[in-house]
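Hi,

Apologies if this is the wrong queue. I'm a grad student, and the batch job for ADP-ribosylglycohydrolase from Phytopseudomonas argentinensis produced an output file that my downstream script rejects. I'm not sure whether the problem is my script or the file. Here is the sequence I used:
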Amino acid sequence: MNQLSTAQDRALGAFHGLALGDALGMPTQSLSREQIRARYGRIEGLIAADADQPIAPNMPAGAITDDTEQAILVGELLDAGQGRIEPAVLARSLIDWEAAMRAKGSQDLLGPSTKRAIEMILAGASPEQAGRFGTTNGAAMRIAPVGIAADVRDPERFMQQVLQACQVTHNTGLGIASAAAVAAVVSAGINGDNLASALDSGIAAARQGQQLGHWVAGGDIAARIEWTARLCADAAPEALPDLIYEVIGTSVASQESVVAAFALARAVANDQLAPYQALCMAASLGGDTDTIAAVLGAMLGAAFGLDAWPREALAQVCTVSQIDLAPLTHRLLALRTL
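Support response: The file is valid. Your script probably expects a header line. Output copied below for reference.
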């Protein structure tokens, strides 16, 4: 396989991995680890949501959530802007997206940081000011298209593109660092790096991102990713879920959910888990499972390509959710050469 086709395969693996992880975590999102155990045991494939699922009641097996929908939105804006996202345009697109979700009765709406930022913009705040309180994982969950379109080997341009995608809702060191970390892993994987090397690129990007935006109190993303690598290094696979859930955390906070995804990715890099096994484990953790699995899927897909994922499951997600990610992925990849 030549270098171009390898990049295409890994870019497709990243975007489809995001969607697959999102769909795997859809029925378990916002449930506790104990609730998931009682209802499902362990997630081992795509399942439908129960009628009392707090965010996605009665959603069919293979349905995506806001993670993938907003990643597609970011990808389309990148494509339309030839690699540039205007913060005000992103804000308006997110407002329109939530209105469409409400119109069809969906409970899958904007997250807390994004919601607060949009309300500030509607009240007259600038996009730069609106995101000054955003510390949750909303920017990281939709950042994968930036990793496809931007080359981390050009760090100044790469960080500028990350910032454009974060600023309007997550203009804080924590929000930008977590998004930069995920985008860098995706970008490095598409460049041909192995997973361990790509994860190291993510740590370096998190350090850069932490210096941008407004300061807010919270655990340093890069330091926490490095800490989790040591924490989980000697853990048996069956011990990882409880360790992540109880010690790292699985809430919407960037320093928990994004770091939890990195912990599982490092376990794959250490040959403790296979990629799809890790994705199912993410969906079984409890907490913000759809986002943890979506972020993890994007990073692993970029390192291993489409073959990391069961083709039948990918087909089900695309059919049920009525998405075709390939054309947009190819256009995003072409932006790297501009």
